[in-house]
Amino acid sequence: DIVQNETARHAHYLLPGLHSLERADIPFYFFTVMGLMPTRSFTYTDAVLAPAGEARDEGLVFRQLCRAAGRPIGSSRALQWLSNLAEAAARLPWLGQRSGLDRLFLGLMARSAGLGGLRTLRKHPNGLLLEANQPGDYLGKRVRTPSGKVELAPADLLARAASLEDAYRHALANLGELRLIQRRERYTHNSWAHNAAAFIKGGRTTNYLYIHPQDAATRSLKEGDSARVCASGRHIDVPVRLDADLLPGTISVPHGWGHQQAAGLSLARQTTGVNVNIIMPDGPDALEPGSGMAHMNGVLAQVTPTPG
Length: 308
What we know:
308 residues; alpha+beta; 2 domains; 6-stranded mixed β-barrel; two-stranded antiparallel sheet
């Protein structure tokens, strides 16, 4: 990581990585290579700045961790050999400026997409416009399932569907309860910008409990009050903001806050926001079995004025 955040305080060692200007890069891989955008393009950039201090490329860090553990990267000896070659080349006076683990893999990625090597991409600093997506058979020559078919009703999905009636009855029995959802805030984008003064001005020094005016009135709450939100046997105290766009019965608390114990975030630790994950359900029962996703939305919650 590049900052000493609240997660890093649990580590014995914090290995400094590179920020976006210190490494060669392409935009988000899924958009660039997989074509998940209306106009397909591919852009490559070299590093702009030299790494600060002892910062290292993540690929090199992973390679050295694998070496210490006695295991090849990704359990692939071929991948390990390529990374060893890149690290050796990076130590050569002339070649080291033009090689490196990150550039090696980005070059291989570009070639696999039929775009040529990095030398070709450097000639197009504004990116290459790719051929438009064409309709057709997106599955390829065969479907990679045991049956070789598109399985619309696999056994594990049908087993989960059998429990939907019970889940629906449980939801009907709790219609009077509030359900907590999370949200991402426009100005802070998760927790990334909370240590930058420009993004935590005015009322942006905390997160809020967003609640429909009708639900707030029945709980003796008004704009600016402090509310206690209880769920999963735990609670947080957070200021109230009325939001008529929310459905009655739904409350929302933005995630990404609660930096008071982050020793390396001098500005963020002065904010007063709270970590909504504290009241999220945990343990194996909090996972959705079919996908393995954590249950972090639609959580039953109670809201009252903060005592005192």
